[in-house]
Write a structure and sequence with these properties.
Layout (H helix, E strand, L loop, with lengths): L1 H20 L12 H32 L4 H31 L14 H30 L4 H11 L1
């Protein structure tokens, strides 16, 4: 039960922090002030730590439910860790762009020498890894029956 509780709490906290972070990307017209970029990326670091806990717990919930789907649990876990690595690199590029700019007046997602790489990291790379994660998680949920079938279906829809 502790595993389920910790996994669930980390997932819920992750959802709440995501809800808190998303508006920070859209509250300023033009370049966000340095404090904004630093704050959203600090929260992102905490979210990455919570995601490690959530993904590890989810793997431990899926695998014993039906040993035939242990490989799907591995795909979920592996794709999740890749997502975390990509997120950490993207965060480092964002913060680096702000710290390198005089007065921090640069939008690191679209300006500066690292912006092109950041677009790929926040865009197609993240979307590909997220799709793999969601498809594997949805399939594992549908096949192992660990939670409501609807959750597995929702995961498949979100992946597309």
């Amino acid at each position: 039960m502790l595993l389920h509780r910790v996994t669930g709490l980390s997932g819920i906290t992750l959802g709440l922090l995501t809800t808190l972070t998303v508006p920070l990307y859209f509250v300023h017209e033009g370049a966000a002030p340095a404090w904004n970029v630093l704050t959203r990326n600090l929260i992102s670091l905490v979210m990455c730590a919570l995601l490690i806990v959530f993904l590890s717990g989810l793997r431990q919930v899926i695998a014993p439910a039906d040993a035939r789907y242990d490989w799907l649990a591995g795909v979920v876990h592996g794709a999740g860790l890749i997502y975390i690595a990509v997120t950490l690199v993207a965060s480092a590029l964002e913060v680096g762009g702000v710290l390198a700019a005089p007065g921090g007046a640069v939008d690191p997602t679209v300006e500066g020498p690292l912006a092109a790489g950041n677009v790929l990291l926040h865009g197609s790379v993240t979307r590909l890894v997220t799709a793999v994660l969601l498809l594997a998680a949805g399939s594992a949920i549908l096949r192992s029956g660990i939670v409501l079938v609807r959750r597995g279906q929702e995961s498949h829809v979100q992946a597309l």
